[in-house]
C-alpha cells in the first residue's frame, strides 16, 4: 500500500482485522458485510476521513480482493472513485465496472454491492441526499420532495465530471498540504457548497433535466431577486416588506409568487435557509468552543425553544445532538 495515499493526515483506521475494519468503515458510511474473497494475507484496511459540514471526503483501501454488501442506506449518496484497479458494482438489474474513468454511486432505496479487486484504493465523496435535494431546489427555485436518483455509473471522463473531479483533487491537495483552511467554518461551508453544487451540475441524476433541460421554465425575475436578497442577508434582521421592496413587487405579490413556485412563504423559506446555516455551523463546531445559543443568535433565532423545535422538525435531532457528533 502507498504511504502517500490521499488524506493520510486524517487516518482513522489501519488494521488487518476484518471485523474492526467493517465496524469503523460502517461508522463513516453504512453498515455492511465485508468478506475477503482471496489472498487474505494481503488484507490491510486503511481509511482516511475529512469531514466537510454535511459531507465528507474519504480514502479507503482493503489491499486484498473483497466483497462489500451494504445494508439499507438512509440519507447518503456515496461516490466511489477507484484511484487504480477495478471494481464490479451491482445495482438494480445493472452492473458497472468502476475504474479511474468510471465512478459508481451508492444511494438510498437502491440495491448495491461491490466486488473489489486486489489493489483498488478508492477516493470517496459522501453527500447527504437531503442536502443535495435542498440545494437543487434552491438552484431551480422549486420545492423538491422526491428522493434524487443517480445513475449507478458516472463517467469521470465527461467534461462536466472531469471539471468536478479536478475540484475534488484540489481540495485533497489542500488537505494534504496541511492548510489551516479547514479550521475555518466559513471556508468549510463554502467548500461544501462548491463541491455539492458542482456534483449536482456535473452528474447524471433525476433532477438533471431541471438544471440543463431546454423545457425548464424560469421562475419570475422578481422571485429570483427576492431569493438573491435572502441569501445576501441571511444573518440580518429583515422583514417581508424589505424582501418585497428588493424584488420590486408588493408584499401580496411576493407571497403569491413564493406560494405558486416554491409552495411556501417568504418567512418559512428564510427560516429554512437559516436552519441550514445553523446546522452547518454546528456540524463544523466543537462542543468545547461552540455554543448552540451563539449559533442560534448568529442566524437570527432569538427564541431558543422555538429554534430547537424547528431544528428537530427539520433534521430529526436536537441542535445539541448535532454539535456532539
TrEMBL record:
Signal peptide extent: none
UniProt cross-references to PANTHER family, sorted A to Z: HTH-TYPE DNA-BINDING TRANSCRIPTIONAL ACTIVATOR EUTR, HTH-TYPE TRANSCRIPTIONAL ACTIVATOR RHAS-RELATED
InterPro entries: AraC-bd_2 (IPR035418), AraC_XylS_family_regulators (IPR050204), Homeodomain-like_sf (IPR009057), HTH_AraC (IPR018060), HTH_AraC-typ_CS (IPR018062)
Protein name (database record): AraC family transcriptional regulator
Source domain of life: Bacteria
Record flagged with keyword Chloroplast: no
An example molecular function term from Gene Ontology annotations: sequence-specific DNA binding
Organism taxonomic ancestry: Bacteria, Bacillati, Actinomycetota, Actinomycetes, Propionibacteriales
SMART domains with a match to the protein in the record: HTH_ARAC
Organism (species): Kribbella sandramycini
Gene3D superfamilies listed in its UniProt record: Homeodomain-like
Keywords assigned by UniProt, alphabetized: DNA-binding, Transcription, Transcription regulation
Location of the HTH araC/xylS-type domain: 224-325
